UniProtKB/TrEMBL annotation:
Statement: the UniProt record of this protein carries the keyword Membrane: yes
UniProt entry keywords in alphabetical sequence: Bacterial flagellum, Cell membrane, Cell projection, Chemotaxis, Cilium, Flagellar rotation, Flagellum, Membrane
Major localization listed first in the record, in broad terms: other
Any Pfam family: FliMN_C
Topology with respect to the bilayer: Peripheral membrane protein
Domain Flagellar motor switch protein FliN-like C-terminal: start-end pairs: 252-323
Localization annotation: Bacterial flagellum basal body; Cell membrane
Family: Belongs to the FliM family.
This protein's encoding gene: fliM
TM region(s), chain numbering: none
Name of the protein in its database record: Flagellar motor switch protein FliM
Keyword Nucleotide-binding: no
Classification lineage: Bacteria, Bacillati, Bacillota, Bacilli, Bacillales
Amino acid sequence: MVDVLSQNEIDALLAALSSGEMDAEELKKEDTQKKVRSYDFKRATRFSKDHIRSLTRIHENFARYLTTYFSAQLRTFVQISVVDVEQLPYDEFIRSIPKMTILNIFEAEPLEGRMVLEVHPNVAYAMLDRLLGGQGTAPSKMNALTEIEMTIMERIFSRAFESLQEAWKTIIDLSPRLEALETNPQFMQIVSPNETIALISLSTKIGDTTGMINLCIPHVVIEPIMPKLSVHHWFVSQKKSRSPEEVEMLEQRVNRAQLPIAVELGESTISIFEFLNLSQGDVITLNKPVGEGLSVKVGNKIKFIGSPGSIKDRIAVQVDEIVSEGVEEEND
């Protein structure tokens, strides 16, 4: 971003140039010198800004689905929202989470590889307390989970992955499946330490308890579908397949639609004076010979050529020719 100087800074700069404290030629040389930008290969940029925006949109939907799901399961006020989407090395993610936390390791076919949904102990224990009949408050001291508590946690988070499946439906049909639930980050090595991951941070509030839920998606896992995360793919409308019943109903409605049909005997041009002096018995000469077919219009398009006649004392027209698609009136 270009720095904008204030008026005082501009005045000070002009005064320094006038007094000789600064040399204009030296400033020009500094501008022409090559600027070197440091690059950390351990923090390789694998996700473009376009990808980050798409991931943000997807997981904003995920947050809304999770809010609905947990509110129904816990029967209390739950609020979940996306606060940040960033890319960083997997090792940095592991070092940033607590030593005692809830790690839901899962796969999502057809993607290959494992991902992690990390739930802060405050949030996890508040959920557990609520499910077991408490007020939904986190204990002051975090103890290791018992087998019963682990089973409850696995059950509630296994169903939470249905929200992830729904959020990704516009991109790919996923089938998330919980593989394991860990509490120690040191025992979880799903990718190499330097592998770039997308970290989606969700701010979570359950009653008066707040904490974070972090979704870790390694780049190597979603690399095959990266082109689908572009803005172009996001906004292109997908063709939705219709059931046979919907197709039949649509055909019936189209068949019942009414169309205006008009038959033109011909055209003629007269002056306003002639028009004002027309009287009964006058004859207007048309531009078509008697033996030439008549134009049959559907709407304002010529679709058929026909011959005039009558049926049961009613004026009628017989279709003699179907006009090819795209043919317009000669006068258009």
